[in-house]
Amino acid sequence: MSARFLDDAARAAFRRAIAAVERASAVEVIVAVRRRSASYLHANAIAGAAAALAGLAVMLFGEHVFALSSILIDPFVAGALAGAAVELLPGLKRLLAPRAMRHRHVERAARATFVERGVHNTRDRSGILVYISWLEREVVLVPDSGLERRLSHEARASAERALTAAMAHGGAAVARELEQLAAALGTAMPIREGDVNELPDTVDSDLDRRSRGRPRR
Questions:
Q1: Which residues contact 32 (CB under 8 A, 6 or more apart)?
Q2: pTM of the model
């Protein structure tokens, strides 16, 4: 499911969106797509505990007579299996993590990625990170200080809501919504004569790198 979010069509759409924004403004765009922004291990613990308790209840109160060794061991095995299975159920993790918790983790991860990807390394502090967290289904924009002074909080919040809503329709839809921001960003920070591309335009994603770690700068 996550791989389909950022398929070839979506990658191409993001490249077009980045190019459109950078043609219309002095803004430098970095797009980072992450599988998730936190592990939410409490969801695994909740599912595991519930499965263990359910198994124990069946063994204690069911008509079938279980051996004492089974009563001692089997509920823990069931709990461990259920807890591990939650890793395959991102929707369940989302359900068991309150929205405020998810938002807090996404914002923290976005700000860390802003520094990690060097979005602040522009002459006029004109970079902006478009951070997309797939499990949480949330998009956060982190502008550098030069752009932040010119882009109102209301405009940024509105853009985040539109980009987040587009996630339900796939990565290409998010890219199209990003492209729509070109005019507003051009008004906030107009392009200047001699403007050069200071940051890479590729999409930074870990959706297809489950075990390889993050890319180097």
A1: 110, 113, 117, 129, 130, 131, 132, 203, 204, 205
A2: 0.88
